[in-house]
Design brief:
The protein is an alpha+beta fold. 30% of the residues lie in helices and 29% in strands. α1 runs antiparallel to α5.
């Protein structure tokens, strides 16, 4: 039997599934997961003026931040280093310039005004120009650096909550496409549908996480230009060319969120995924869909 709970949080829908019989304790745990998502959203949302993250971006430093903000900032900075800058949590200002300055549900689909993007550094990405430093329990933002933790925060929340639910049985938490799975169900792996141009591709997930990065969904027009939410750290503009979307399986939802952005910005995502043995679904501009990195 599968118990489930669905709710809205972090600008998307969240669904929690547990392969277990109903019980008061499990119902309480599912309710606690909903509260935990809400707590993390209030802490980490860049759209809330009263969030801890917004306070950090305004004040440019924060002493003794919450354990969650400190851990997530360190995770995001480590990911920037390990991906060679393809995953970059300091693109807040470029997102705002692109028009993503409020929750996506509130972003107008057509706005006539034009906002200038931040100037791209000469010769490519300048990590030092958007520096973030962590000294003990102090976070400091350098010139030009403001944090956006939206995507990685969803994966982080899914990982935390699926671990709490795993005490009751195999569990899956899906935060708008960022999935965390604690283990297979009694009847086998969890079937997970991935939308592709030809329909739905069903994957079997028995642990870890899954995440998608794509420019085919969250799109709008500003000043006559088509824009989306995936910013190229080298140009500080919405990424051009490359695949339409990349869905990646990894050891956790947090890791999958990082890996999907890393592959989305790769020069040859298929080759990179295959070489790393990283299972991925890559949808190209022409609608061709490729499953790679399996059995490498």
């Amino acid at each position: 039997m599968t118990e489930r709970r669905r709710f809205d949080s972090m600008g998307t829908w969240v669904e929690c599934l547990v392969d277990a019989s109903p019980s008061p304790a499990l119902a309480a745990a599912l309710a606690a997961v909903e509260r935990e998502f809400g707590r993390l959203e209030r802490m980490l949302s860049r759209f809330r003026a009263d969030s801890e993250l917004s306070r950090l971006n305004r004040d440019r430093f924060l002493d003794d931040p919450s354990d969650e903000l400190l851990e997530l900032t360190e995770l995001a900075l480590d990911a920037r280093e390990s991906t060679g800058g393809r995953f970059d949590p300091t693109l807040h200002d470029a997102l705002v310039a692109a028009g993503y300055d409020r929750t996506f549900a509130e972003v107008p689909q057509e706005v006539l005004d034009y906002r200038a993007f931040p100037a791209a550094p000469a010769g490519g990405r300048d990590a030092g120009g958007r520096d973030v430093r962590v000294h003990g329990r102090r976070i400091e933002l350098g010139p030009g650096a403001s944090l956006d933790l939206g995507g990685i925060a969803k994966g982080y929340a899914a990982d935390r909550c699926v671990a709490a639910l795993a005490a009751f049985g195999p569990a899956l938490v899906n935060a708008g496409g960022d999935l965390a799975v604690s283990g297979p169900r009694a009847e086998g792996a969890w079937p997970v549908g991935v939308d592709v141009p030809s329909g739905t591709l069903t994957l079997a997930l028995d642990g870890g996480g899954l995440a998608t990065s794509g420019r085919d969904r969250r799109r709008w027009r500003r000043g006559g230009e088509e824009r989306h939410h995936l910013i190229d750290p080298w140009t500080l503009r919405p990424a051009e060319n490359g695949p339409l979307s990349v869905t990646v399986a990894a050891q956790s939802a947090t890791a999958a969120e990082v890996a999907s952005k890393q592959l989305f910005l790769a020069k040859d995502p298929e080759h990179e995924a295959q070489a790393a043995g990283r299972p991925a679904v890559i949808v190209h501009e022409n609608g061709e869909t490729r499953l790679v990195g399996v059995g490498a």
